[in-house]
Amino acid sequence: MECGACPWLWSTWVKAPVLRESDLLIASACLPVVNPELFRRLAEGRTVLLACPERESPTHYGKIASMVRSSRPRRITVVTIDGSPHCYTLHASANEAEYILGEKLAKEHFVVVNGSELARVSPNAVRVARYLSLVDELLEKNPGVLERLEALSEEYRAALKRGGRPGAADEGGPVAVEAPGR
């Protein structure tokens, strides 16, 4: 499938016939550019909707929930680029749609690591990522993950060069902040 033929999630009618009982792939709009071959493999036999929270409204959860309610896709697979703060919201939106509907959805989450490796991500990993206090706790218990972050993240390597410390709790922890004007 050529990416030029793929409709956008935000622009697709929730009752479009192509969605009814489909195997739906919600993919980062940049995936066909980042890894065209992987995109073609993932798209094969699926109804593809591209999405970009940086370009579209970031409230995809309502759109996904409406699509599920109206068209009942058999399965939803979300594939994004690992490390993108924008792409992350597509995963959170799929989980939120499930919550809004109050029903278990047949869905899977994947990220593309370094533009090539497809890695499955659990729905709970997506949930935990929303709670930075829990992420910080996990880093405290497993600081070695920062070595993997260094291998993946240009931003983290730049922070280290600017004098950031490799420890998980550099500036972390609860801080009492007085409300402005008091």
Characterize the structure shown.
Strand 4 and strand 5 (117-121) form a beta hairpin. The model has no long low-confidence stretch (mean pLDDT 90). The chain has helices spanning 31-34, 36-43, 60-71, 88-101, 123-129, 132-141, 145-152, 154-161, and strands spanning 23-28, 47-51, 75-81, 107-113, 117-121. The longest helix has 14 residues, at 88-101. The protein folds into two domains: 3-123, 3-Layer(aba) Sandwich (Rossmann fold); 131-165, no CATH class. The chain has eight helices and five strands, in the order βααβαβαββαααα. The chain has a five-stranded mixed beta sheet with strand order 2-1-3-4-5, sandwiched between helices. It is α/β, with parallel strands linked by helices and 182 residues long.
Outline the secondary-structure elements:
Layout (H helix, E strand, L loop, with lengths): L22 E6 L2 H4 L1 H8 L3 E5 L8 H12 L3 E7 L6 H14 L5 E7 L3 E5 L1 H7 L2 H10 L3 H8 L1 H8 L21
Helix pairs in contact: 3-4
